[in-house]
Amino acid sequence: MSLRPLGIDPSHCFIGGVWAPGESGETLDLRNPSDGSTLCAIARGTEADIDRAVAAGEQALEGEWGRLANFERGRILHRIGQKVLEHVETLAELEALDVGKPLKQARADVIALARYMEFYAGAADKIHGTTIPFLDGYTVYTMREPHGVTGHIIPWNYPMQIIGRSVGAALTMGNAAVLKPAEEACLTALAFAGIAHEAGLPAGALNVVPGLGAEAGAALTAHPGVRHISFTGSVGVGKLIQSAAAQNVVPVTLELGGKSPQLVFEDADVAAALPFLTNAGIQNAGQTCSASSRILVHRSRYDEVVSGMAARYAALRAGPAMDDLDVGPLVSARQKQIVEGFLAQGADLEVAACGQVVESAPEGGAYVAPTLFTGVSPDHRLAQDEIFGPVQVVIPFDTEEEAVSIANGTAYGLVASVWSDSGARQMRLAKRLRAGQVFLNNYGAGGGVELPFGGSGLSGHGREKGFEALYGFSTLKTVAALHG
Ligand code: ADP
Predict the structure, then answer these.
(1) What's the pLDDT score for residue 446?
(2) Exposed site from 247, 317, 333, 402, fewest CB < 10 Å?
(3) Are strands 206-208 and 176-180 parallel, antiparallel or unpaired?
(4) pTM of the prediction?
């Protein structure tokens, strides 16, 4: 598989509007998680490539890109969105092959990428400053300005969606972006750069340097020319990135995952809840920051929820991305090993049901059968740590107080949901749950492009998506004129 349909060589970097190999000439093998084969070679970007990419961004800011009116930036973003939609099938196939996600999930990601472009296209000329009443003889106003060159380090689980929310918002505010996609999956990042270029995005406004985290990623975070860093990925790397950013005193947005709970109360509509309870755990094989990996259930509805979820789990089929089943492989053999390590820790727990890996699934694929654990103690590792696999735990509770305490009882705070008919309880818990997003009688796994998203605690800080992201990707200047 290659990017040939889009006329792109996947072993190239995209810097200053030009496709070329990395300076070292070295490449990395990109694997197909569905069968373990090599998909293609990608560039192994280095510090030298990052230097060139940051310089290209600075040049773009000095040139055409930096001078465009907000509505003109919006028009370009809109055209990018349209072009993304023209390439839905190609992009979906690339994402499915690269990440291992079933085609229908990959297609939904392409649509989301287009939606980000549409949303931010419309927002580009609607973010403005204010005037501030001050002393006699003064006029004071504020302006929103770009940071400058922004660094974007993204993971392999939802490349297109994360490019949409992070690069999309940065470009909207007039920044020039340098994107370092994950070494496990970077084809759609490259494809997106090609599409954006074709749609008229000026050279240097978006630069893509694939490579290893410890090389290209670390070089990007340490670069003094980078004025803002957004990162989505693991807690460990998030800490490294925040430390690196501190050396240059630049702001960071960190989205580091979670252990998001759904709370099912005695007055819940369980039939309505069941698809959400399960899908939020197995979507993208559980490799979702906002996956709901803990299901907390009032004891009076516990058996009903467990049997309903178990029936769904028993019907789940995992297989190659292109077979478009319920669940694909995990992204890599390494990720499979990590998830199997967690499953081994659950050896003493009750398993309510497992899905099945289809017999035709290739030996070399990174498959794990979706697994539902029940009766899990809230302090068990499987109920505390982010697993990043198709694994959920069900935990019973007796009172609302206990439910809140269990829900808030991990180091994370990304998403939560409440299933209850009581409006008072919904409002009460929306306040008390520690999460950046709370869903009432639904679960959005991060929600739509319009909804601000981000967490607290080990889930990170800063908000992406919606208008809120545009504040993070810009800085506020206050102008005070004394005119008498
Ligand atoms: P995972 O463990 O799920 O693969 P990571 O947090 O390791 O997630 O990776 C997310 C992104 O961070 C990837 O693009 C990866 O290359 C990058 N990355 C990894 N290590 C570093 C680092 N030391 N500095 C900057 N980026 C890094």
Answers:
(1) 61
(2) 247
(3) parallel
(4) 0.97
Are 424 and 441 a contacting pair, CB within 8 Å?
no
Count of Cβ atoms closer than 10 Å to residue 133 Cβ: 7
The CATH H-level superfamily of 261-447 is Aldehyde Dehydrogenase; Chain A, domain 2 (3.40.309.10)
Nearest atom in ligand 1 to the alpha carbon of residue 221 is 25
Ligand 1 centroid–CA 356 distance in Å is 30
List per-block mean pLDDT (blocks of 10 residues) for the chain, which spans 484 residues: 74 97 97 96 98 98 98 98 97 97 97 98 96 98 98 98 98 98 97 97 98 98 98 98 98 97 98 98 97 98 98 98 98 98 96 97 98 96 98 98 98 98 98 97 86 97 97 98 97
Run of H or E residues at 31: strand 27-31
User: Could you tell me the CATH superfamily of domain 4-256+462-479?
Assistant: Aldehyde Dehydrogenase; Chain A, domain 1 (3.40.605.10)
Report strand pairing: 138-146 vs 131-132. antiparallel
Ligand 1: which atom is nearest the Cα of residue 236? 6
Q: By alpha-carbon position, which residue is closest to atom 21 of ligand 1?
A: 213
